[in-house]
Amino acid sequence: MAGKGKNAGVTIVIKREEGGEAGHHGGAWKVAYADFVTAMMAFFLLMWLLNATSEEQRRGLADYFSPSNVLARAASGSGQPFGGRTPNSEGTAVSDEGAIRVERGPAPVRLDLDEEGEAPPEGQADPGRPPAEATSAPAALPPSPGTEAAAQPGQPAELNPAAIPDGELRAELARRERQAFDRAAEDIRAAVRDDPALAELARQLVVEQVPEGLRIQLLDAERRPMFPIGGTAPNERARALLQKVIGIAARLPNALAIAGHTDATPFRGQDRSNWELSADRANAVRRIMVEGGIAEGRLSSVTGHADRSLLLPDEPTNPANRRVAITLLRALPESAAP
C-alpha cells in the first residue's frame, strides 16, 4: 500500500508532432542538374564536331537537314524564324538548297601560230613561202609524248614535232614553248610568294629552264625538311608546295618526269638504301600529282637517283641535296630554237 501511494501523483504526458520533410531533402534539384549536364555534353559534342569536320562536310550536313522542295516556295527544314537557313549561309535572306556550283577556272595555254596573222585562203599559197611549206603549218603546238589529240571538225590534225620539215616553224614552236615555260615559272613563284603560309619556303623552291624543259625542285633546308628523316611521305609543307605546282602544271600539255635525290649520308637500314629512298619519294610525289588532277598519261618517268646527282657536289651532306625534281619536258628539242 505504501508503494502504490507513492506513484499515485505522477502524470505521464505523451507529445506527438506531425510535419513534412525538410525542403533540402527533395529531389527536384537532381532533375535540373541532370538537364544541365546533358546540355553541356551536347554543347561540347557540337564543338568537337565543328572542329573535326571540314567546310564541305558541314555544308553537306546542313543540306541534309534543309533539303530543297520543288513544291514549296522556300527550302524546307526548320521553318521560321530561320526559313531553312544554316550557319553556312551568306547574307540575310539566303537559304541552302544544295545546288551544284559551277565555277570558271583558268583556261589552258594554247599556242596558236595564227594569233599574229591570218592564214592564207584555202588552196592559195603564202607569197613568202614555197607551196609545200604553206600547207604544212599546224594550227597549234603539237601534244607532248603520252597524250593523244583528235582533230576537231574543220581543223587540221596536229602534227608530230619531229615530223615538221620547216626549220623556221620548228624554231617558232620552240620559242613559244619557252615563253609558256617562262609564264608558268613566274606563276609558280608568284603563287608561293603571295601565300603567307608558304612565303618563307620560297627559298626551298627552285624553278628554272634546263635543256630538258622546265624543272621545278623542292629542296630540303636545315631544320625544314620536305620529308621526314628516312620517310617517304611528304609533310604538310611539301604537300602545300606541290599543290601550287600542280595548279600551274595542269595548264600545260607537256609530259612530266619526276626524280628523287638524296644526299651522300648513308641510309641507316639493312634492307634499304638511298636508292630505294629516292625512288619511293619520287613515287609518292607522283601519287599526289595524279590525285591533284595530273593525267596519268602525262607522266613520262619516275626515277630515283640516290646521291649520284648532287645539287651541291662540293657539299655532299648539305640538306639541299635532298630534293625532288619535277620537269615539264619540251615537246621540241632545245636545238630547234635559233
UniProtKB/TrEMBL annotation:
Residues 214-332 form the OmpA-like domain. Residues 76-162 are annotated as: Disordered. CDD domains: OmpA_C-like (cd07185). Keywords: Cell membrane, Cell projection, Cilium, Flagellum, Membrane, Transmembrane, Transmembrane helix. The keyword Mitochondrion does not apply. It is found in: Cell membrane. The keyword Flavoprotein does not apply. Belongs to the MotB family. The chain crosses the membrane at residues 31-50. It comes from the Bacteria. InterPro entries: Bact_OuterMem_StrucFunc, MotB-like_N_dom, OmpA-like, OmpA-like_sf. This is Flagellar motor protein MotB. It is a single-pass membrane protein.
